[in-house]
Design goal:
It contains 1 helix and 15 strands. By secondary structure, it is mainly beta. It has a 13-stranded antiparallel sheet. A two-stranded parallel ribbon has the order 9-10. The longest helix has 21 residues, at about 5-25.
């Protein structure tokens, strides 16, 4: 068995465990903050069984200057997993009045990603960076909004306590992503996504706190 196949099987096993952990919740929702000010929400719903799961994402953000909206962002995605492995993704993103669509399908030898700029042939074990699945972070990642491959490396750190939107906190394991972006994700002891912190291109800080 080659390294690619072995890594795919390990990721599939970890992903299946993660989707089983989420099966009881069926929903994840986050309050989203930019520089400490809430700007919107990120919601995910999980349907199907633990081995064949559909993940639907809906993000709505509005940044204001005083009472005046100066930036709007909306993102919808439908992600399918079969047998604990990534199968497909469809996304629509509208940011600052511009809409982008991306679709991806996993084949036997590659993940084919369709964007407005053309087709990208990604490695067969490439996964979308949709954050909810810690098992996805160790392999090749692509941007679900733009479809491009990402230059990131992931490192699993220790258990920490992170804030929830309610004001409480939860023990969660931190994963650090570094490279072309600076992102930290936290996953609770059941494997569910609990929080995010990242630095945006304009230097501001974005935080997700689970509702």
């Amino acid at each position: 068995m080659d390294q690619l196949s072995r890594r795919g099987l390990i990721a599939a096993g970890l992903s299946l465990a993660c989707t089983r952990a989420l099966a009881a919740n069926r929903r994840l929702a986050f309050a989203v903050f930019r520089n400490g000010v809430q700007v919107g929400e990120h919601q995910m719903t999980f349907t199907g069984g633990p081995g064949d799961t559909v993940v639907r994402t809906d993000v709505s953000l509005v940044v204001k200057l005083g009472p005046v909206p100066v930036y709007r962002y909306a993102h919808q995605a439908q992600e399918r997993w079969s047998g604990g492995r990534f199968a497909s993704l469809e996304t629509t993103t509208t940011a600052a009045g511009r809409t982008q669509k991306v679709s991806a399908r996993r084949g036997a030898e590659a993940v084919l990603i369709e964007t407005a700029g053309g087709r990208i042939r990604a490695p067969a074990d490439a996964l979308p960076l949709t954050h909810w699945n810690a098992a996805a972070l160790t392999g090749p990642l692509f941007n679900p909004q733009e479809g491009k491959m990402l230059r990131l490396s992931a490192r699993k750190l220790g258990l920490e306590r992170v804030k929830l939107a309610s004001g409480g906190d939860v023990a969660a394991t931190r994963w650090s992503l570094r490279g072309e972006s600076e992102i930290d994700n936290w996953y609770d002891q059941g494997g569910a996504w609990a929080a995010l912190r990242g630095r945006l291109p304009d230097g501001s800080t974005m935080e997700y706190r689970r509702l």
